[in-house]
Each structure stands twice: as C-alpha cells, then as structure tokens.
C-alpha cells in the first residue's frame, strides 16, 4: 500500500493537524516508511513465542478482587465541601 499526497492531506485533516501543502510530500513519505516497517514486522515468525511483561521471567503480583471502602472514610471525606454522617452531602436536584 502506498500513501500519496491526497491521502496524506486527508489523514492530516482527519487528525485535525494543519499541514502546509509544501510539507505533504514529506508527510506521505513518512507514512510510507511507517507502513513499510509494519509490513516488515508482519513477516516475522512469532509462532510459539509467549507474550512477556518483562525481560526477566516473573509472575505479576496479584491481589484479591474484593470491593472495599478503602478503610479511610475520614481521608476520603476530608476534601468534601459538605459531609454529614460519613457521606457526601449534595444539594437536592429533584423536587
């Protein structure tokens, strides 16, 4: 796939980037270089390659998926403009 000047102009417009007409050829060249690199990556054989998180094999630390209140009600309500009885107090919006 090859990107021409008009396609580069359209991509710039969709990205809401102001690109002067004299820079569109260079932008199209950059897009073509990126697409060439993607095509090169698609040729790499990755069958049997495990995904990795780090260069050193290790397991991620896990915690129990438990819903809690954070055990910090005073800290949570400290910045509230109005708090009553341990809850945020907001103006009534429904009459």
UniProtKB/TrEMBL annotation:
Q: Which residues form a coiled coil?
A: none
Q: What is the name listed in the Swiss-Prot or TrEMBL entry for this protein?
A: Aspartyl/glutamyl-tRNA(Asn/Gln) amidotransferase subunit C
Q: Which family does it belong to?
A: Belongs to the GatC family.
Under which EC number(s) is this enzyme classified?
Answer: 6.3.5.-
Protein origin, superkingdom:
Bacteria
GO terms for MF = asparaginyl-tRNA synthase (glutamine-hydrolyzing) activity; ATP binding; glutaminyl-tRNA synthase (glutamine-hydrolyzing) activity; transferase activity
Q: Which GO terms describe its biological process?
A: glutaminyl-tRNAGln biosynthesis via transamidation; regulation of translational fidelity; translation
Q: How does it assemble?
A: Heterotrimer of A, B and C subunits.
Please provide the record's keywords in A-Z order.
Answer: ATP-binding, Ligase, Nucleotide-binding, Protein biosynthesis, Transferase
Protein species of origin: Jannaschia helgolandensis
Q: What does this protein do?
A: Allows the formation of correctly charged Asn-tRNA(Asn) or Gln-tRNA(Gln) through the transamidation of misacylated Asp-tRNA(Asn) or Glu-tRNA(Gln) in organisms which lack either or both of asparaginyl-tRNA or glutaminyl-tRNA synthetases. The reaction takes place in the presence of glutamine and ATP through an activated phospho-Asp-tRNA(Asn) or phospho-Glu-tRNA(Gln).
| Catalytic reaction list | L-aspartyl-tRNA(Asn) + L-glutamine + ATP + H2O = L-asparaginyl-tRNA(Asn) + L-glutamate + ADP + phosphate + 2 H(+); L-glutamyl-tRNA(Gln) + L-glutamine + ATP + H2O = L-glutaminyl-tRNA(Gln) + L-glutamate + ADP + phosphate + H(+)
């Amino acid at each position: 796939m090859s990107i021409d000047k008009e396609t580069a102009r359209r991509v710039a417009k969709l990205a809401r980037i102001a690109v002067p007409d004299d820079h569109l050829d260079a932008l199209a060249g950059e897009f073509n270089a990126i697409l060439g690199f993607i095509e090169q990556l698609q040729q790499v054989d990755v069958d049997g390659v495990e995904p990795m998180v780090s260069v050193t094999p290790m397991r991620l630390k896990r915690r129990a998926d438990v819903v809690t209140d954070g055990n910090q009600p005073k800290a949570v309500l400290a910045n509230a403009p109005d708090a009553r009885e341990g809850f945020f107090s907001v103006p009534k919006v429904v009459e």
